[in-house]
Structure to design on (522 residues):
């Protein structure tokens, strides 16, 4: 049967981009094959960073209060994380988010596992030289940093970029910014190295942005900056002293005239970081969400040509946070994976990530793995903050040390492109693609085989006629585990000699196939 790629295209020009099987974009037909979602493996050394310095009050690895990047030019992993440094010194009667003061710390690592908090000579606390990089005199206190390593910028002094907020009600912009806990709008700073920061002289870049979640990203394919966050402030908030601004009543049916009151996420984009499009509401809890779910933050990235992203969801009643993997073809319309389960499960009772697993920073490709530097918490979302005021009978409301030591930087790893695989078990299955075109010389597959398992590939034209030199019988059987195995047929390995578009049929048994790629070299 002849199968066109789509209604308006005979074939898909895949170039040398990695093709993943997260959706059916290149899949025409399968037999005896199932799709499986995979879970990153938590590192045995977790947690990697925790509060362990005398000047640290509450190291806050939450959305959007930390980042981890890899600076390959310097050979370092770098982390920026927020500290509520007044935590533990505030009288319980006046304890609130407003009385918590914030500054930004810096740590680095050569291997991503062992981290150093360097004395930087910028800010001293009680005689201790600290690792503070921002939020110290002469600058105001800051919160919610989102850091981007921008190798495209020709100005070396702006190689690193940070968006952030002031944690100071005195810098509100009346009638420009709605009342909230942070004022002054969304601001930006630049740095050549991630340590020495200079605020943008024309701050704020978005005056009306005053909420506490903003995640700055760069899309390398569409070539634009994209900002994700809670634009404008908390939905349905009120300055009245009797208003519960943490959790307002919810109208699930969203009747006309009723504002969405749960946490939700906006998206805006820019070519120059200064001129931003009008933010559009992209994530708003609806029928797919539970009654108490709020969408806390969203961080996207590219995997091959696909958009992937993690949606951090606050379950308000249980006061826990989970993160769910989503995928998109255009970066605007998103779908949740079939299993509808968190990408990384929260830990068991007494673990370092029992109540909260979330992530505002993009995962990093390290060798043949994807590294997820996630925030893991063994305290609930807000019980440690307002539980005492509300009279909640929970440990965090009674023991201040639990909140102080409850937030950690953790790591989980996954094989490259190992989010989803197409699997066959004891019966041989096969996967047939839609018509594809590439000038790439070689075909590479990402797959793994169990005992007595195998993967074989044949190449066909659009009418399923097998090219003689590229038949299943002539394919050198793959029985191993590789993220980039070069397919060969009786010693022949180049596929760009075949004219026009082609279709692939993967035969597999007791094996998992994660994706494939046409490319000229290994």
């Amino acid at each position: 049967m002849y199968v066109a790629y789509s209604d308006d295209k005979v074939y898909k020009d895949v170039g040398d981009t990695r093709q993943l099987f997260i959706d059916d974009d290149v899949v025409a037909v399968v037999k005896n094959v199932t799709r499986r979602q995979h879970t990153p493996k938590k590192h045995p050394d977790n947690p990697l960073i925790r509060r362990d310095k005398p000047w640290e009050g509450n190291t806050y690895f939450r959305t959007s209060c930390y980042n981890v990047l890899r600076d390959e030019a310097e050979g370092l992993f770098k982390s920026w994380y927020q500290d509520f440094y007044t935590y533990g010194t505030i009288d319980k009667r006046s304890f609130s988010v407003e009385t918590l003061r914030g500054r930004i710390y810096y740590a680095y690592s050569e291997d991503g596992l062992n981290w150093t908090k360097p004395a930087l000579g910028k800010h001293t606390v009680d005689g201790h030289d600290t690792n503070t990089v921002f939020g110290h005199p002469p600058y105001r206190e800051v919160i919610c940093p989102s850091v981007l390593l921008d190798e495209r910028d020709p100005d070396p002094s702006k190689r690193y970029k940070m968006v952030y907020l002031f944690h100071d009600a005195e810098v509100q912009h009346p009638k420009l910014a709605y009342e909230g806990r942070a004022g002054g709008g969304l601001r930006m700073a630049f740095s050549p190295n991630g340590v020495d920061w200079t605020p943008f002289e024309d701050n704020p870049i978005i005056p009306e942005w005053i909420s506490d979640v903003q995640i700055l990203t760069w899309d390398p394919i569409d070539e634009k900056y994209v900002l994700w966050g809670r634009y404008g402030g908390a939905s349905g908030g009120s300055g009245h002293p009797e208003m519960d601004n943490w959790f307002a009543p919810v109208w699930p049916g969203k009747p006309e005239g009723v504002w969405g009151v749960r946490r939700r996420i906006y998206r805006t984009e820019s070519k120059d970081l200064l001129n931003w499009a009008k933010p559009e509401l992209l994530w708003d809890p609806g029928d797919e969400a539970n009654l108490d779910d709020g969408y806390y933050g969203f961080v996207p990235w590219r995997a091959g040509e696909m958009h992937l992203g993690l949606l951090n969801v606050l379950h308000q009643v249980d006061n826990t946070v989970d993160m769910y993997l989503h995928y998109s073809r255009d970066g605007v319309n998103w779908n949740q994976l079939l299993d509808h389960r968190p990408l990384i499960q929260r830990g068991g009772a007494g673990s370092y990530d029992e109540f909260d697993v979330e992530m505002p920073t993009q995962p990093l490709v390290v060798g043949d793995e994807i590294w997820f530097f996630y925030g893991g918490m063994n305290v609930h979302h807000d019980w440690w903050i307002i539980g005492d005021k509300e009279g909640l009978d929970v440990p965090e409301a009674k023991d201040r040390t639990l909140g102080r030591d409850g937030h950690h930087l953790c790591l989980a790893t996954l094989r490259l492109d190992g989010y989803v695989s197409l699997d066959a078990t004891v019966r041989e299955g096969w996967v047939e693609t839609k018509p594809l075109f590439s000038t790439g010389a070689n075909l590479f597959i990402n797959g793994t085989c169990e005992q007595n398992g195998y993967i074989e590939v044949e190449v066909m034209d659009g009418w399923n006629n097998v090219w003689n030199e590229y038949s299943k019988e002539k394919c050198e059987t793959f029985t191993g585990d590789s993220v980039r195995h070069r397919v060969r047929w009786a010693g022949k390995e180049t596929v760009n000699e075949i004219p026009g578009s082609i279709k692939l049929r993967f035969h597999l048994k007791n094996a998992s196939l994660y994706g494939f790629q046409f490319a000229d070299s290994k």
